[in-house]
Amino acid sequence: MRFFPSLIFASSVNTDAFLVGMSYGIRKIHFTLFQNLLISLISFIGTLLSLFLGRRLLFFLPDRLTACAGSILLFALGIFYICKSLKSSENSLHAESIRTTLPLREVLLLGSALSLNNVGIGIGASMSGIVLLPTALITFLTSAVFLSGGNHLGSAALLRLSSRYADLLSGVMLLLLGICNFAV
What we know:
Distance between the termini: 28 Å
Largest sheet: none
Mean pLDDT: 77
Radius of gyration: 17 Å
Shape: globular
Helix content: over 70%
């Protein structure tokens, strides 16, 4: 019976992974298995630490602090892609090479942003008595599935856009995700 609270927790903290995956898929950037697992591993470590710290730092660390940090990173990524879109529309005569995967530093940044979003919720969940290791493992699995699923959905023919509009839409989605996480 302890499986269901862990599954609910993991699903709720990884909805942003689904949206992030979709925003990258729209821009025709696909996560390799290694990138997906690395992002999910960073999320796992952040969740595990937050669940552990939640038991230890019950009254010292405000939940809002970590949620704000993750939101700011997502917001910054959104601004970056919006600016990139505006810049590419100004230089539309120059052919732009299309990346199909992410550089390692962006994978690490993305994993950190998604992990930071989990920290505040993880601390709160651990204080409510959620089981530490199974919850973190389920979070790892749902992160990998949601990220991959969103990425595949974003690259579907219905959502394919020219790179000019894809960067703009992706940036807006990341920006809104950052704002929504900040507001909650």
